[in-house]
Design brief:
The chain is mainly beta. The protein contains five helices and 32 strands. It binds 2-acetamido-2-deoxy-beta-D-glucopyranose (10 copies) and copper (II) ion.
């Protein structure tokens, strides 16, 4: 097989691969301009027509392409009655946090009839990222790929593929998504599960009345393809695979990783994974497919369907049609661990070094809570096991303020917006992954943790099983972080001795294992107000969120720039 050469690179050694010696002097930024009109348009899926919010009438939204070092300029015109913001998932926004996008964290919404121009340089990163709405559940239909090509003159650390193809995995409701959210909030219980998953907006042939809504990728025999896979689903971790074809993972969350071969990948909402596959089978048609990893204990309702697309060999007409790829069962946590433990960072010149010494230790419990049914409230509003489901970090349920935290922080007018006292550890120690406590309540708050510029930070993310045990895809804005350790049960200090400080994965979204923990490290070299939250939208909505504020440094390029003139106001 043609990939063998680079598969044999000694992957565990600390040799720096010098694959891209392109000039680092790149004084003139190339500007890439896009106009994004937030619109409503008719989309028909599963034989029913919906009027969905999207960008320029496209679903999924426009693909953005640029080279590392370019400046991206996106003028957003809000032409719908709803408020909107856009987030550039995984982009550092170094000094330009005004453009990060989470509503009421870094900006007020772009209101109906108004515009805001997002404008930032993308530096020190390359690969597959994506953009999505970051207010209420708008991102269900407002999302697209953001592809950062290597700087001109540099290349991938693997043989160039013959073609590159974005694969956006999504989640589809037949009813209005905002109505699903509103109903969940009114009832205090879980939201209705989706009716379908989608590949590039299309559910595929395994649903009722969806025979025409099938994504087809035409391939040529012998050629190698780079799939840029993005999990844009709202609330579901997914398995993905292609029948009869091996996948070679080469990148995750826009960081190169040591290549490894696999039959399936697992990908949480927020994550991206680049895989290579070679069309090396008998000409014919082969299914690609995705289905849920949903191992919550006790089991939550989940969308138990399978989305499929087709890889179609062009070379010679053939009637061969594969079966579905054999994906792991919805509750196969072992297969998830097996996949995730194969992921190792690729040591390159561009890669930041793994922090060995830690200045700031943070310990965050993440999980669900159940608020007691408020006195006098109707039962219809307490459908979450007799109460109302909420979620928390360190027992604080994040409550969104009414104006932007970044705006308040920058102008030092904090009144009624947020407080700076988010704790470094949970208020009480308990058996986090053991039997639930009797009191499942949390406390409301809008609190941030302040971190000095340049400090080396370790965060232990400890899952809890108070209401149920689930894995939570935790996303930190503004940063990539090293995943130096993860495991089941309650974290213990002694585990630090076995952390991987040599070649840990580098990501922006970590799946904290079911009934387990994960340890992440980063250097706080990006000043700003950074949202940290579960990327399952229902958990974000329930308050599984907090804010890290990295202070300005002393250097000339170490402070947040002034806000732009068109910065939205509340
Ligand atoms: C956005 O809307 C404006 C006003 O209707 C229109 O002039 C412009 O062409 C639209 N741009 C795109 C990219 O659709
Ligand atoms: C949620 O599901 C229930 C039960 O199937 C249904 O009655 C209700 O209309 C659904 N809600 C929405 C907003 O689709
Ligand atoms: C497809 O439609 C039929 C008839 O309406 C129904 O009985 C069946 O349950 C549906 N199947 C799925 C997977 O929705
Ligand atoms: C998922 O669907 C399959 C096929 O319809 C069924 O056999 C299986 O029991 C379902 N699993 C769950 C957990 O609902
Ligand atoms: C997964 O669920 C099936 C029922 O659908 C059950 O038989 C099996 O034991 C479960 N596996 C695990 C690992 O929990
Ligand atoms: C409301 O719930 C309580 C406790 O679950 C139950 O005792 C009561 O009968 C319910 N009331 C109604 C009107 O359903
Ligand atoms: C969380 O906060 C609530 C409200 O203050 C309290 O009742 C509960 O005991 C706390 N739980 C934990 C685990 O800290
Ligand atoms: C927390 O805040 C929400 C509003 O965001 C409110 O509905 C809820 O009652 C509050 N819960 C408590 C325990 O104060
Ligand atoms: C942000 O910019 C500063 C100054 O150029 C640099 O030292 C730092 O590494 C950058 N951080 C990121 C995350 O790119
Ligand atoms: C849009 O945002 C503004 C500012 O926060 C708020 O006052 C208004 O109620 C919001 N409008 C809608 C339709 O949600
Ligand atoms: Cu979560």
């Amino acid at each position: 097989m043609q990939l063998e050469g680079w598969m044999l690179v000694p992957i565990f050694s600390a040799i720096l691969l010098s694959f891209s010696l392109a000039s680092h002097a790149n004084p003139v930024e190339i500007e890439r301009f896009y106009e994004f009109n937030i619109t409503r348009s008719q989309v028909t899926r599963l034989c029913s027509t919906k009027n969905i919010v999207n960008v320029n009438g496209q679903f999924p939204g426009p693909e953005i392409h640029l080279d590392e070092g370019d400046m991206l300029v996106v003028k957003v015109n809000n032409q719908v009655p709803e408020n909107i913001t856009l987030h550039w998932h995984g982009v550092f926004q170094n000094r330009t946090g005004w453009y990060d996008g989470p509503a009421y964290v870094t900006q007020c919404p772009i209101q109906s009839g108004s515009s805001y121009t997002y404008k930032f340089v993308i530096k020190n990163q390359r690969g597959t990222l994506w953009w999505h709405a970051h207010i209420r559940w708008m991102r269900a239909t407002v999302y697209g790929a953001l592809i950062i090509h290597p700087r001109p003159g540099s290349s991938f650390p693997f043989p160039a593929p013959d073609a590159e193809v974005p694969i956006l995995l999504g989640e589809w409701w037949q009813s209005d998504v905002q109505a699903v959210l509103n109903q969940a909030l009114a009832s205090g219980g879980g939201p209705n599960v989706s009716d379908a998953f989608t590949i590039n907006g299309l559910p595929g042939p395994l649903y009722n009345c969806s025979g025409n809504d099938v994504y087809v990728l035409d391939v040529e025999q012998g050629k190698t393809y780079l799939l840029r896979i993005i999990n844009a689903a709202m609330n579901t971790d997914l398995f993905f695979g292609i029948a009869n074809h091996k996948l070679t993972v080469v990148e995750a969350d826009a960081s190169y990783h040591q290549p490894f071969e696999t039959d399936y990948i697992v990908i949480t909402p927020g994550q991206t994974t680049n895989v290579l596959f070679t069309a090396d089978q008998t000409p014919g048609q082969y299914f690609m497919a995705a289905s849920a990893y949903a191992a919550a204990v006790p089991q939550n309702p989940f969308d138990n369907t399978t989305t499929a697309g087709i890889i179609r060999y062009k070379s010679s007409p053939s009637s061969f049609f594969s079966g579905l790829p054999r994906l792991p069962a919805f509750n196969d946590t072992r297969k998830v661990v097996s996949f995730n433990s194969k992921l190792r960072g690729l040591l390159t010149e561009e890669l930041p070094t793994v922090p060995v010494k830690v200045d700031r230790h943070l310990f965050f419990t993440v999980g669900l809570n159940r608020e007691d049914c408020p006195r006098g409230a109707p039962n219809s509003s307490c459908q979450g096991n007799g109460g109302r489901f909420v979620a928390s970090i360190n027992n604080i349920t994040y409550v969104s303020p009414r104006s932007s935290i970044l705006g308040a922080y920058y102008t030092n007018k904090l009144m009624n917006v947020f407080t700076k006292d988010f704790s470094t550890k949970p208020p009480v120690k308990f058996d986090y992954t053991g039997r639930p406590l009797r009191n499942l309540n949390s406390k409301n708050g809008t609190k941030a943790r302040i971190i000095p510029y340049g400090s080396s930070v370790q965060i232990i993310l400890q899952g809890t099983s108070l209401v149920n045990a689930e894995s939570h895809p935790i996303h930190l804005h503004g940063y990539d972080f090293f995943i130096v350790g993860q495991g089941f049960g309650n974290y213990k200090k002694k585990y630090e001795a076995s952390f991987n400080l040599v070649d840990p994965p580098l990501r922006n979204t970590i799946s904290v294992p079911l009934k387990g923990w994960a340890a992440i490290r980063l250097i706080a070299n990006n000043p700003g107000v950074w949202f940290m939250h579960c990327h399952l939208d229902i958990h974000t909505t329930w308050g599984l969120d907090t804010v890290l504020i990295v202070e300005n440094g002393e250097g000339p390029l170490q402070s947040i720039q002034a806000p732009p003139p068109d910065y939205p106001r509340c």
